[in-house]
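Possible regression after last week's pipeline update?

I re-ran a chain I had predicted before the update to compare outputs. Posting the input and the new output here so someone can diff against the archived version. Not blocking, just want to make sure nothing changed silently.
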Amino acid sequence: MDQGIIASLLQHPLASALVIVDRTGRPLAANPAAREHGLPATVAAYAPMLEDLRLMAADGGIVACTLPGGPRGHYDGHLRAVHDGAGNLLAFTLSIPEPVPVDGGGRWELALDSAGHSLWDWDIPSDRVVRTPALGDETATEMLSRVHSEDIAQVRAALDEHLRGRSEQYSAQFRFRQADGQWRWVLDRGRVVARTADGQPLRMVGTHTDIEQQKQLESLLQEQQLHLSEAQRIASMGSWSFDPNSGHFWWSPELRSLLALEQGAVPGQRRWLKQLHPRSRGALRAAWRRLWRDGRAANLELELTRGHEPSQHLRLWMQPLLDMDGQPKRLLGQVQNITEQHQTDALIRWRTELLNRVSALGRIGGCEIEVQTRHMQWTEECYRIHGLRKEPITLDQALALYTEDSRDAFEAALVRIANGGLPEQLDLCFYRQSGLRVWVQVLIELDRRDGLPPRFVVLFRDITREREANERIELLAHYDLLTGLPNRVLLGEQTAEAIEEARDRGTSLAMLFIDLDGFKTIND
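New output (post-update):
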């Protein structure tokens, strides 16, 4: 750091102690008031414990902090960052004003407490621990008794490791019983600041940080990760990411398992592309270029070929994470194995096509009508029978084509079947928009399948030709082709019916014969 800048900072206008420290917390310079109280040495000893406060100050603003010493046993002051004109961090200034008593603790105590931090100072020979905010004196043995039984072993091991000089800093996370009896996760860090000539520890200082919320978030994250892994396993999905700076791909274990890769194996880009069908390879390259050019998410289907093995169909999602300039800085993605879905869709398409062919050959159309909403869906053959274009149509619009008698008969059948009646078969008549009369035989039944709303399943069979043929046979059997008058067969049938009706009613029956002379000659 420039000496002129240091000299300028030391010209502090107030009667305060001022220490200038570098980014690591090492003292660079101090004014007379700071040197008088030995603050440079204290700051150097506490540098690791003040790391979090330096990080907070580097983000801007003034951060309250504390150091041991002074009339009350501690100094409370403020730490701030010093930047150059370009905004680059140069150093930190620690300013400590003259001690001013404050009831209920200093401002630094309130700041540390609200942030979940506290400082502790352990006099090892006497086993006394002083904590701030002031919580009363307590022995280290008493504090360790409040550590959870499942954590005490690793806490003692870490503490012993540092006291013996085998680690530069003590650090441990554990559950700590509070005064109200509740357990909370804490992060405990410290360092021995004084030793005897033979290396025995005399004094140790450190920080005590509440990390309960962080642990809860970690637990929630782990739970969500388990749910995600299980969901991906069920859905045959895997995750991947790509770092454009390093050119490194990361594939999740689920994705490696999905593609039958060995643990830790990630094929190179060229090897991966060679396994794709040429059509999929071109589509992937085009989508990849668009993504880096436009910075937009993309998804596509790929076909993975492996020699003589059946092809594997995959759905690929790609989502870029953008930097401040709107450029992709990382790529996240998902891959789903849709081979079974692809095969199922192909089978459904084939069966649908086969059903349409059979329906067209048999002139049979079908539709579904939801009981509650009367929403209707038709097959292609049903549209063809009614002479309509394939577009959405309501039940009322369809029934408007039918004659009044046929419409009433159909509605009545729906009511009877919905009320528990048996399936019914009807012969109905309607007129196409061209005016052509069409007869259909309709079979109606109610379907109550689990998981689906109740619906009517209706089959339509075009019987126009059969109906016209029957009418033609009826005409030939009972009417004279030349005159169109009833013939002897119809006379006999009607006479038998009249005699049967008169017998049932107990009435008389009369028959009138009219003889036309010479009619045979006219008829011939």
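Follow-up from reviewer: compared with the archived run. The radius of gyration is 46 Å. Marking as no regression found.
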